[in-house]
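Can't paste images in this forum, so I'm doing it all in text. The chain is below; anyone willing to post the predicted structure tokens underneath?
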Amino acid sequence: MAESPTFLLSRLPHQCQAVDPSFITASRRKKAANRAKSSKYYDINKTEINEAKRISRTRRSVFPTVGRAERILSRKQKPQEPPLKAAVATSTVAEQRESNRIIAATPLKGIISGTTASSSCTPPSPGTTSAPASKAPATALPPSAAPPRSKMAVLADRIPMMWEQFGEVVSNRPLKEYLTNICERFAQLQEEDLESTRTLFEDEQEKLYQVRELILRYQSKALNLEGCTRVWREWDTLRARVDLYLRELSELECEAILGPGQLVVEFRRKTLAFQRAS
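Text version of the structure:
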């Protein structure tokens, strides 16, 4: 007996059965409408969206954050301290009982020895001298028992060290003296060896950029630990000073690029920016 076509179609896999064309059309229309809404929203607010993306990228580059997976892994690896509440409570109760027993037994000892409890509080007679009470020698804590220092205290101690390192880079000169020395060295090198003047500004900028990179690293740590506190502001003051030296040095380099001898001529005429400022 031959089977009907409807029965044969029902036995086919679900993937082989025909799909309703209206369902496909409705799905495509819905996706197209969603795309149109997204495009319209972006066209209206693209300035704010791009600005938010730029700020987010800048913040991630300056203040790198730890990912969620790394935070979870660090929490799992953190050793857990054993519960000490029961032991501390037991020792506290035992010590309290012992102290109460000693206090209660003290007046009885005075009565048994023929003295009253108030006799210990009376001052000695003028003709007698009382032996000075022996004091227990003060024991200093070993170095291992000293409390650990906080991370912010360590960052605060590194600020004077970084000021010294910055002073070594600029030879402990103020800004005007530092720039004057650079111009004099440039003029001397221009007379002796013109090729060596190309690396003068690059070498000085490289030294300052290395100091600046360390400052930004420590400043970022201070910001992540406690925010804009006193330590962070001290690091920011040092960072601003290094940026000032870098900015003035870049202006001198631009003057030197204009032409051979241009920087030396303006320096001798005292028409450079740092010379006019004074």
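The two ends are 112 Å apart (CA to CA). The chain has a mean pLDDT of 71.
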